[in-house]
Amino acid sequence: MRSPSGPPVRQDEPASGLGPTRSPVHASSGTRLGTARPRQEGPTDLRLVPPALAAWGTAALVLDAHPAWALGLVTGCLVMGCLVAVGLPPSARRTRRARVASWPRASAVALLLCVAAAAASAGLHGADLRRGPVPGLAREYATVTAEVELSSDPRLTRPKVRGDHVAPKAVLIDADVLRVQEAGGTAVTTRAPVLVIVDVHAASPGRFTDGRGRSPWLGLLPSTRLRVSARLAPAMTGGDRVAAVLRVRDQGEPEVVGEPSGPQRLAGRLRAGLREATDGLPADPRALLPGLVVGDTSRITPELEEAFKETDLTHTLAVSGANFTILLALLLGPPGLAQHVERRGLAPRLGISLRGTAVLGGVLSLGFVIVCRPDPSVVRAAACGAVALLALATGRRRSMIPALATAVLLLVLYDPWLARSYGFLLSVVATGALLTLAPRWSAGLRRRGVPPRLAEALGAAAAAQALCAPIVAVLSARVSLVAVPCNLLAEFAIAPATVLGFAALAAAPVAMPVAEALAWCAHWPAGWIAWIARAGAALPGGGVDWPGSWAGAALLLAATLVVVLVGRRLLGHPWWCAACGLLLALAVVQPPPLTRAVTGWPPPGWRLVMCDVGQGDAMVLAAGAGTGVVVDAGPDPQLVDRCLRSLGISRIPLVVLTHFHADHVAGLPGVLRGRAVGAIETTGFEEPADQAAFVRRLAAARRIPLTRAAAGEQRRTGELSWQVVWPPPSPPPDSPSRTPPDSPTWTPPGTPPGVLPVPPPAPEGPNDASVAMLVRTAGLRLLLLGDLEPPAQRALARSPAAEALEGVDVLKVAHHGSVYQDPGLIRRAAPRLALISCGEDNSYGHPAPGTVAALRAGGAAVLRTDRDGALAVAGGGGELRVARD
User: Fold this and answer.
1) If 536 and its partner were Cys, which of 224, 307, 311, 333 is the partner (CB 3.0–4.6 Å)?
2) pLDDT at position 218, please?
């Protein structure tokens, strides 16, 4: 209180030296826990933020530093901290005013001490990568026998297209080498973090029969000890907590020498029970629910994973603070009521006191960490989730900034490698956005008439997206324009899916039917989340390419700031807001007529489009409005899907796969995504076998008929017609009217009278078995040669269809314009336009300069996707036009 004419005095002291002493009265305007009104908050305390950020930056830098440099930094910071501390005035401990005056100097001491602690911790962790014999053996690529302890769940690599084949799958496991013995040497005890790579074909021949990589290696639990024979190699990339790579030899079943710990066995049983409980669900919920609950993404398909990336919903597939927040919210009740007498939630309904609720929350936290694996990422998620929940539950968001800074500081000191983790950065930034920007934006929306619950959800989603989008852009070189609405629509389903999923996980070990019933209930919200991701990813303008660098991130942050400042002014003008919303919706949906009018792509009357899919082939033949015949699918589902979306293709009567090399078929999931497909036609030469099986699985899963192409086949759809000119058909094996296929006088069906029979050459590989087509559309003739090599090209030039190949309008050059071309076939075709599909700066040297020169010498105009992008051929009759995207 304030005296009438003097400075403020404390109520627990007499106003003068005379008079009785009053009982102490606290001036705080807040109330104790359990009352009906929350406490009043003071200004935000930011003193812990600089030390936390300094420790974070120090840890990121010192991990790669020489130990002497790290020791010098620690010593220097300690000395400077002592000198600053000695300079503190003695009165700093006596009066409040003196303490306030000394805060800057005390903050400097705290910052120096935190930097010293971070440097010491990072120096010790970084030294683990250089300690012991493992790094030296790795530089020599030594073959060793090692005993390792697994520190993570095994994971299967995603298939990657390399040239014309798919790189073999491998099982990746983080582990620590405990003992290592070189051939002919003695065993040495050590401890070094390594990345174990097990080639699935070499490790378990015959076990990968279902296409999902089910291997005994994938069933191993963290903390299991193995003995392996392997070759050491240096770490593939710098900056990771890996001292070396341990590539395991072919040894079938892993040799287990130590069983996993009790908590890990319990976590493994719970996770396996959840997978079993979800086995009978539809594909998307079956894959998504384990990932949503405990971060088990082993069933997530590349297509679904890409959809979640496109919509910035990837955080739902990883163990994040949101999982933990939802569980504790179920325990504590609605946000803001945890300290009120009318608090709700399971704990008060069960009569548990606040202190008992805190203990129960701690037990729940421990269980969450055990089930989701007690590795640093889960500990980080639990810590950040607890901070966010504490802010929401108490309503004291301002005071949570120091709590978040404390969590960051302790986690970085505990595990300095988190300082280089993008996941950690995204978690901290998202939590900070929820504590700082989201409340202000929500309040602003409420003042403008937005309902409170919608305002809070919209403010949280927009704030998190605004601060996290620049970091995501660095990782993916793409910015999602549908992230906020997709996250808003998915948010309502995340809580029920998570709660029901955890209930199914808990029930599975004791009552599987109950777990299956709970999983069945959870599959509805999980399916909704997957549908949102797929629908958002299918929008043509759902994302835009962005520079994938920190300069690009700064540019995006500046653009976001401009949008926020402009948006604040527009909120007061509903008509302007509606106009901007309509423009954004049109940019995202991109109606084909509007897109064609603005960009000129695709050109009117287009007949053939060669998509730019990198080092591979993918073409589309126009067959009517929204309809096209697709010839090959390229190596990347995302690229071919983007091409088809830009053309407005929703119906595909036929997909022709010229042969089974990965650069022609690996993108097939992108062709099938969201489109009605009538049939898939392939060559009869099913090599490589793994890619042929891949196509058969996709066709069977979508119930699409699978047929084989053969020379002489003719088809028509609308104005489009085509004839298969290669490969020759295989005669029925028991046909009495024909000589055996290996006979040199065998005559293909449909050969005109008087034409000498040509023996079908046995293909030397998949390229020579490519499906070649002669296409007729609007008076144009197009010859598509797949990847035919010179032997098959020469046989085609002498085949019964050779006369029809003369003087074509457009030639799709065989095998990406490689040097292996038959000059006779090029002279016979004499195209007006030659199209070459190849990737920029590809390692094969495609197209060969000699091939390009030969085509131009024959009078052809040569265009190529690596320089010209996607190419569209339009016109009719004698007119031929080409447009570039």
Assistant:
1) 311
2) 85
Q: Of all residues in the chain, what percent carry a pLDDT higher than 90?
A: 33
The strand pairing partners of 715, in sequence order, are 722
- Identify which of 105, 53, 33, 71 has the alpha carbon closest to the alpha carbon of residue 340: 33
Helices and strands, number each (H, E), in the chain: 30, 28
pLDDT at 276 over 50: yes
Strands 655-657 and 680-682: parallel
CB burial class (10 A; 0-12, 13-18, 19+) of residue 803?
exposed
Q: What is the DSSP string of 259-320?
A: PPPHHHHHHHHHHHHHHHHTTTS-HHHHHHHHHHHH---TT--HHHHHHHHHTT-GGGGS--
Would you state the pLDDT for residue 295? 80
Classify burial at 605, counting beta carbons within 10 Å of its beta carbon; exposed 0-12, middle 13-18, buried 19 or more. middle
Do the beta carbons of residue 838 and residue 865 sit within 8 Å? yes
Residues 625, 310, 655: CA angle, nearest 5 degrees: 35
From CA 223, how far away is CA 708, in angstroms rounded? 50
Please give the mean pLDDT across all residues of the chain: 81
> Residue 73 to residues 50, 109, 112, 117, 335: CA-CA distances in angstroms?
18, 15, 10, 10, 44
Tell me, what's the pLDDT at 208? 41
Average pLDDT, stretch 539-543? 85
The conformational region for residue 573 under phi > 0 = left, psi -120 to 50 = alpha, else beta, is beta
Determine contact, residues 799/827, Cβ cutoff 8 Å.
no
Do the Cβ atoms of 594 and 860 come closer than 8 Å?
Answer: no
pLDDT at residue 398 tops 80? no
Residue-wise pLDDT for 440-494, tens only, equals 888 888 888 888 888 888 888 899 889 999 999 998 888 999 998 998 899 888 8
CA separation, residue 444 to residues 448, 451, 460 (Å): 7, 11, 12
Whole-angstrom distance, CA of residue 501 vs CA of residue 515? 9
Residues β-bridged to residue 717: 720
In angstroms, the CA 771 to CA 144 distance is: 48
Indicate the SS3 state at residue 880: strand
**Amino acid 205: pLDDT:** 40
**Residue 89, SS3 per DSSP:** coil
Q: C-alpha angle 456/460/464, rounded to 5°?
A: 175
Tokens representing 106 are 């005390």
CB-side exposure of 868: number of CA atoms within 13 Å?
A: 18
